Amino acid sequence: MIFIPGCAGFIGFSTTRALLEQGKTCVGIDNLNQYYDVKMKQKRLSILKGYKNFIFYEADVENFDVLKLIFQMHKFDSIINLAARAGVRYSMQNPFVYLSTNTLGTLNLFELAKRFGVEKVVLASTSSLYAGESLPFREDYCVNKPLSVYAASKKAMEAIAYSYYQLYGIDVTMLRYFTVYGPYGRPDMSIFRFIKWIYEEEPVIIFGDGSQSRDFTYIDDAVDATIKGLKKVGCEAFNVGANTSYSLNYIISLIEQNLGKKAKIVHKEFHKADVLATRADFSKINSMLDFTPKVTIEEGIKRLCDWYVENASFLKDISTKEQDR
To answer: In whole angstroms, how far apart are CA 149 and each of 63, 92, 107, 139, 278?
Structure first.
């Protein structure tokens, strides 16, 4: 039985669904916060509730007493912690929730894993730790200079994980995801926004000139890496990316091709918490977990655009704004 905090989030939902399809029993929790449009989370959750091997509790990782009750009711073999406050920019406006959810929530889970004998934890970390480092990013970089409270909270999560591994032998896989996108993705993230704005013929807002580049990871690849992360490794961090980097301008051109519409671009000032480029060295995760990304950016954008068009009636009412202010 697998415990999945954050099961209504993007990666959480996709990973939970994949495990349910494999016949695994999953217990999921989510607080359904309104950082982005909660209708997307409710939609994901409605899909998961269609599986008989899925159990859900509306709960928060910050609430130790509620978590303890759940651990008392179920015997977990492993935890995949995908509950987190996401978003670099918003962490500058409301830093407190990042420390309470990402850091305290992680501490709660490790403490309960220790008390209830859970031997394996998979932890969602981030490529944002690498700000200022040279490309491609490698896991052995020191990453001691986070540019945002979001990144700092993730660094703290990794430190907590390492301490519980050293003290209590809890096996930990820490996954540093690189810009995950795909169906049922976060509506506040760039690719979803670009598709929605171009499809609805609204202005496309770009911070900077669009030359900044990212190592984009299609959701199926992220899920594959997450599930492979259940393997016993000791305590290790892994990049989840493709060792590729594409500019926002190129992404927009792919979306234009797939939707058959032209973007109306509006440029705004580049955000100081952003980085100019990301690219993952994934040789470590390839060697230790046998993970290789399979979906190219061209194929991934095509799949996502096709999905968006098929679900346009639902997605037209999904807001791209960060809502929890």
So the answer is: 21, 7, 17, 20, 19
